[in-house]
Amino acid sequence: MAQSTLETAATKNRVLAEAGCLVPGSFDDFSRLIKFLYKRLIKEKILNEADYKDVEAPPIPVDYSWARKLGLVRKPAGFLSSISDDRGEELVYAGMPISQIFSQDLGIGGVVGLLWFRRRLPDYANKFIEMVLMVTADHGPAVSGAHNTIVTARAGKDLISSLCSGPRFGGALDDAAKMFTRAYDSGLTPEEFVEKTRKSGKLISGIGHLVKSLENPDKRVEIVVEFAKKNFDSTSILDYALAVQKVTTRKKSNLILNVDGAVACAFVDLLRGCKLFSKEEADQYVKLGSLNALFVLGRSIGFIGHFLDQKRLGQGLYRHPTDDITYFLHDLPTN
After folding, report:
1. What is the pTM of this model?
2. What pLDDT digit, counting tens, does each position of 222-240 carry?
3. Is there a contact between 256 and 214 (Cβ–Cβ < 8 Å)?
4. What is the pLDDT of residue 170?
5. Which residue ranges does UniProt annotate as crossing the membrane (predicted)?
6. CATH 1.10.230.10 describes domain 172-313
7. Which H, E and C letters describe 233-253, residue by residue?
8. How far apart are CA 183 and CA 237, in angstroms?
9. Element (H or E) spanning 96, and its range?
10. Which of 15, 50, 61, 259 has its CA at 20 to 30 Å from residue 186's CA atom?
11. How far apart are CA 169 and CA 177, in angstroms?
């Protein structure tokens, strides 16, 4: 910004030096000149050296990134994750690089196995997971979850809002797995299990269907049972559930093992029989809600389909017909 020679730093330094100032030749000379001036003032008795004590320079903090690379410091973790890692050159699922997942054609079932169970499951297990997603993907527009999705979509809401519009969602698979497994492990016969549950005033989760019956079987259940029988090392829980079905259908033909019960029992057999989990680990995954997670994942496919279907069809705001409503009002009290 100097407009003339008089405004340059070199001229200013020269004039200051001519006036008697100690002017460093560079920034590095500052400390040398300060020390020189201090010693001179002490010598000329302008300063008393006893009045000044050496002061240690404050330590300069170590650069965190540099120290971390050297392993000198460790930052406490905010949370733990044991299923995936994206810090390297390639995304890793449970120790398996994403390129390897594709080269070995694990499919969506294999990815679920890696991310949910932290293991590479056998091919038949991956196929079974995909089968579960397929048979649970949709159950028509009339069931509550799909109905809620449709109504919400027609109200103009976004996909996620429509997808999550039904809070009472799933849970039957988890309950069925727990009930049948607990009864089997405790040694109850199917008859004793049914009688004990009846006396407690509870329903058997995974048993019963509004439409399907022994005379009109659910094809989805047949597909699940057939696959498990053909591919699993053991189907002890599923066999137990089918034995319970023989007891319940004596009372009523539609008290059959439904798709929730079939999937739940078969999945417990899969976890226990694939030799990758201990019995305790298999039971833990049931308690964690992995079965309901499969149902939610599968049924979301259908819900998304219903959302897109309503948008594609250009359906307007839904209004429920009044002839399907029972109006039950009380007269206001009069004085």
Report:
1. 0.76
2. 999 999 999 999 999 999 9
3. yes
4. 62
5. none
6. yes
7. CCCHHHHHHHHHHHHHCCCCC
8. 9
9. strand 96-97
10. 259
11. 17
- Of residues 296, 300, 228, the one with CA closest to residue 257: 228
The number of residues in the chain equals 335
| Residues of each domain in the chain carrying CATH 1.10.230.10 | 172-313
Per-residue pLDDT tens digits for 90-102: 999 999 999 999 9
CA angle 305, 306, 310 (to 5 degrees): 120
CA nearest neighbour of 224 among 113, 112, 110, 131: 131
Low-confidence residues of the chain: pLDDT under 50: none
- Side chain identity, residue 310: Q
pLDDT of 167 = 59
Q: How is the beta sheet containing 92-93 ordered, strand by strand? A: 84-85, 92-93, 96-97
**Which residue's entry shows tokens 């340059």?**
8
Q: Which of 221, 214, 204 is nearest to 254 (CA)?
A: 214
Concatenating the DSSP letter of every residue in 14-48 gives HHHHHTT----SSGGGHHHHHHHHHHHHHHTTSS-
